[in-house]
Amino acid sequence: MTQPSVVEREEDVRWMSLALDEAKEAQRAGEVPVGAVIVRGTDLLAKAGNRTLRDQDPTGHAESLAIRAAAESLGSWRLEGCTLYVTLEPCAMCAGAIVLARLDRVVFGAWDDKAGMAGSVADLLRHPRLNHRPQVHAGVCGDASRNLLSDFFRARRGAVEPSR
């Protein structure tokens, strides 16, 4: 899929920077560096980084954790009026949770050509048969998000000695 260029709004860059901070914190804990924040207007409702390894939980993606925390903060599973900022294009599981939570907007940094469900592999977030379709803005702080992931996986590959 062709990946459109993005016009970065100052507000989106500010919130995405906080998501990048969460991704870096996840990386320091040995997790794949993905971070997410959820805001409503100017209020930060939730922030999270990946926790799949620490929690031994395959659903411990940054987006899922942030959605749970935002729902708890609001006392409602409906996150209408909220925006999710995440450093990597959501996977199928997270895209499903985004749709079910009724988030208004999703802003993400790096495309995920192997598992992305906002246009890379498929577009679950804007599927015409679903009853809710958030606005999607891709590529915000894309270089920083992509570089963080690339550096992480390059270091992991370098740490493993090839077997002979």
Strand order of the largest sheet: 2-1-3-4-5
Q: What is the number of beta strands?
A: 5
What characterizes the major β-sheet? 5 strands, mixed
* Rg over alpha carbons: 15 Å
Low-confidence stretches: none
β-strand amount: 15-25%
The portion of residues assigned to helices is: 25-40%
* Element-by-element helix/strand order: HEEHHEHEEH
Q: Averaging pLDDT over every residue, what do you get?
A: 93
Number of continuous helical runs: 5
What is the structural class?
A: alpha/beta
- Described by the principal axes of the CA atoms, the overall outline is globular
> Termini distance?
38 Å
Task: Name a few traits of the molecule.
164 residues; 18% strand; alpha/beta; 5 strands
Describe the structure.
The chain is α/β, with parallel strands linked by helices and 164 residues long. It is built from 5 helices and 5 strands, in the order αββααβαββα. It has helices at 10-28, 52-55, 62-74, 92-101, 142-159; strands at residues 35-40, 43-49, 82-88, 105-110, 135-138. It has a 5-stranded mixed β-sheet with strand order 2-1-3-4-5. The longest helix is centred in the first third of the chain and has 19 residues, at 10-28. The radius of gyration is 15 Å and the shape is globular.
Provide the fold topology.
Layout: H1 10-28, E1 35-40, E2 43-49, H2 52-55, H3 62-74, E3 82-88, H4 92-101, E4 105-110, E5 135-138, H5 142-159
Parallel strand pairs: 3-4, 4-5
Antiparallel strand pairs: 1-2, 1-3
